[in-house]
Amino acid sequence: MDNKDTLPLIPLRGLTIFPNMVLHFDVGREKSIEAIDVAMLNGEEIFLATQKQMELDNPSSSDISNIGTLCKIKQIIKMPGDTIRVLVEGKARGKIKKYIDNDKYFEVVIEKIDDSPSNDKEDAELDGYFESLKKTFKKFIKAAGEESPEMMTNIKLEKNVYEFVNIVASYLPLSEERKQEILETIDIKKRIELLLISLEKELKVIKVQKKLANKMKKSVDDSQKEFYLREQLKFIQEELGEDDEEKVIINKFEEKINKTKLPKEVKEKALNELGRLKRMNISSSEGNTVQSYLEWLLDIPWGKYTKEVLDIKKAEEVLNSEHYGLEDVKERILEYLAVKKMSGSLKGPILCLVGPPGVGKTSIAKSIAKAINRKYVRMSLGGLKDESEIRGHRRTYVAAIPGRIIYGLKEAKALNPLILLDEIDKLSTDYKGNPADALLEVLDSEQNKTFRDNYIELPIDLSKALFITTANSLDTIPRPLLDRMEIVEVSGYTYEEKFHIAKNHLMPKIFKEYNLNNDKVTIKDDAIKEIIDGYTRESGVRSLERALGKLIRKSIAELLKDNKETITINKKKVEKLMGTRIFTFDEIKKEDKLGVVTGLAWTAYGGDTLPVEAMVMKGNGKLQLTGKLGEVMQESAKAAYSYVRSNASKYGIKEDFYKEKDIHIHVPEGAVPKDGPSAGVTMVTALVSALSGRKVKGNVAMTGEVTLTGRVLPIGGLKEKSLAAFRAGVNTIIIPKENASDVEKIPSSIRNKIKIIKAEEVGTVLENALIGKGTNVN
C-alpha cells in the first residue's frame, strides 16, 4: 500500500477503533453493507470513522469525523434479519482527503498518518513520557482489579510507543468524544498527556467507588445481622407467646378501617398500608413508620362535621355578651350566617381581622366559634419559618409528621372547624421554604377542597372550614395571600368603650381569677376612668387589664395588712395604690407655639400623636432632618420645603430665605423609627410657622400627604388617628378632603366632641392652624 488509498468507508455510531485493536460491530444500514461487500472484493481493507451525531441514520460527509482508522476485515457473520457482524483489526490511522461521488456507499481517498517510531529513537523526553504512561497504566490495572497475566505481558513487552498508546486508549473506559480526541491528536507527546490525564481521573473514580463499596458492604452486613437477630427474636417471641401483641395491633387497625366510614381512596390507601404492615416486622423501624402513618390517617375525621347553628339572634347575643364594640366584625359574621341560612350552602369566608394589639381579635374568633357551634382551633403563625409546618413532611424523612392543618383537624374531630391563623403578618422565611406560599392553597376556597398534606398524601376537603386570620399590619403580608382574604379592620377602642369593657368584662374576670366578690372589694367608676386616663395609653385593653389586676392585687394586700373587712377604691385611692399618674393628656391643649405642630400617625399599636418641630437659624440654606425618619418621610420633608420655598411671598416669607437661613426639622422620640407620607401637611405648617413667625394653635392636630403644588392627598387609619387626637386633648383635627367618607367610621361619641376640618389645599390647613400675623423672624 502506498501513502494514499481509495477505500470504502463505514461511519460508526458510538464506537471508536484504534490501530492494533480487534473489534466486532454489527452493520445494518444499506450503504454500510454495500461498503463491506466492496471491501471483501478488494483486499478486505475498509476505512472506519466515527459519526459526530450518533442518532443520524443517513449521515452526510459533514457529519463524519475527518480522522479514522484503516482496518483489515478478519471475519463476517450473517446475523438474523438483515444484519452482518464484522470482526476487524485496526492497522493505521488515516485522514480523509476527499469523498468520491458514489450513491451506493461512502468511498473516500485517505492519507495514512505516519506512526513510525524511527524518527524518535533519540528523543529522551519521549522516553520519559513512555515510561510514565507504562507506570500509570500498570497502577490503573492493579486498582481496577484486572491484573491478568495477558495484560501484564502486554505492558512488559518491548512494544513501540505508538502501539502502546493505542493499546492503552482502546482499554480505558473513556467517552467516545475523548477517544476520538486521542485518535485525532497527531503529536505523540500530546496523545500521551491526554491519556495520563484520563488515567489519573479514572484512578480517582476507582478509589471513590472502592470506598463506597466498602461502606455498602458494611451496611449490608449490618442489615443481615439485624435480620438474623430479628428472626431469632421472632422465634423466641413465638415460643413465649409474645407474638400475639403484633396480631392485636394489626387486628385493631383492621377493625378501625372497616368500622370507620372512609372515602374510597382513603380506604384503599389504608388497606394497602395495612397489607405492608402484615408483611413486615412490626417492631422494626419501617414497621413503626407504617403504624404511625395509619394512626394519623385514621385520626383524621373523614366525613365528620359538627352541626352548625344558624340562629342569627342567638349568635348576635353571644357576640354582644362577650365583646363590646367591634361592630364591623360582628356585622360581617351575622351577614355570613344570614346568607348561609337562606342559601342552604355557602363556602366559609376567609376573614382577616386587622388591628392593633389587645383589641380582641383572637378572642372574638373564639366567640364566633361558640356562636355558630363550631369546633375552635387556634394556630399561632408568629415566627413560623418552615413550609413543612403547614404542609407536613414527606414520609421519606425520618420522624416525618403531618402539618399543623392536619393537627388542627385531628384536635377538632370535625372537617368544618373554625381555624384561627393567629399573627399571619409575622410569618418568616428561610432555606426550608416560605410558609406564606404554602398557605396560598389553604386559604383559597377554589383550591382547598383538595388540600394535600405531604405526609398524608391524600386530598382533604378544607372548603367547609371557616378560616379567620389576625394581623397587626397588612404591610408584611404577601400580596397573593392578602388577595385571598376579606379584610375587616378592628380599630382601637374609644374612652367610653374601654370603660364599658373594663367594668362589664375585665373586672368580673379579675374578680373570678382572684376568688373575690363585691362585698370585699368595691371599685368605683371614677377609679376605672382614672386607670384608663392616667395609667394606660393604648388602642386595645391588654395594658388596661394588667393595670386593673395590679390595682386589685394592691388593694387585697392592703386589706389583709390592715385587717380590714372591706375596701372601696375611688379615684383618690387609685393614686395612693398605683403611684403617680404615668400619662397626662392636657399638656398640648392650650399653649400656642412657634414652629411646633401636632401631627397624627398610625402605628401597628394604633393611632398616636406625632409632634413636628421646625427651627430657623442663620446659615446658607441647609435642610437638616432628625428623629430617625424613614425614606418616605424624608422625601415628604423635602417636598414640604420645596412648596414653602416656591410660595414664600404668599405666606409673608422672604423669597431668598434659603440663601441665608438653615432649617432643622425634628420629630421627637428619636429612638423610634418613623415613616410614611402623612406628615406632609404637618411639616409645611411647621416650616411656614417658623419662617413667618406665626404661631400654631395648640389645640389643632393634622394629617395628610402634600404635593409640590400644595394639594392635600388622602391617608389611612383616620379612625385610629382621631382616637389618638382625642386622647391627647385635641379638639380640632384637619384631614384631607378625600377622607371625608372615613369620618363616619369615627365613633359618634368622639366625632361630636371634635371639630373636623376637611382640606383640599395646604392654604386651608394654614388658615385654620396658624394664628396672628408674621413677626418677620425670617
From TrEMBL:
Start and end residues of each Lon N-terminal domain: 7-203
Residues covered by the Lon proteolytic domain: 591-772
Pfam families the record matches: AAA (PF00004), Lon_C (PF05362), Lon_lid (PF22667), LON_substr_bdg (PF02190)
Catalytic activity reported: Hydrolysis of proteins in presence of ATP
Induction: By heat shock.
InterPro entries hit by this protein: AAA+_ATPase, ATPase_AAA_core, Lon_bac, Lon_bac/euk-typ, Lon_lid, Lon_proteolytic, Lon_Prtase, Lon_prtase_N
Superkingdom of this protein's organism: Bacteria
Keywords: ATP-binding, Cytoplasm, Hydrolase, Nucleotide-binding, Protease, Serine protease, Stress response
Enzyme class, spelled out: hydrolase
Entries under SUPFAM superfamilies matching the protein: P-loop containing nucleoside triphosphate hydrolases, PUA domain-like, Ribosomal protein S5 domain 2-like
Catalytic machinery residues: S678, K721
UniProt-annotated binding residues for ATP: G355, P356, P357, G358, V359, G360, K361, T362
EC number: 3.4.21.53
MF (Gene Ontology): serine-type endopeptidase activity
Compartments where found: Cytoplasm
NCBIfam families on file: lon
Family the entry assigns: Belongs to the peptidase S16 family.
Subunit (UniProt): Homohexamer. Organized in a ring with a central cavity.
Function comment: ATP-dependent serine protease that mediates the selective degradation of mutant and abnormal proteins as well as certain short-lived regulatory proteins. Required for cellular homeostasis and for survival from DNA damage and developmental changes induced by stress. Degrades polypeptides processively to yield small peptide fragments that are 5 to 10 amino acids long. Binds to DNA in a double-stranded, site-specific manner.
PANTHER family reported for this sequence: ATP DEPENDENT LON PROTEASE FAMILY MEMBER
Official protein name in the record: Lon protease
Organism, as annotated: Clostridium cibarium
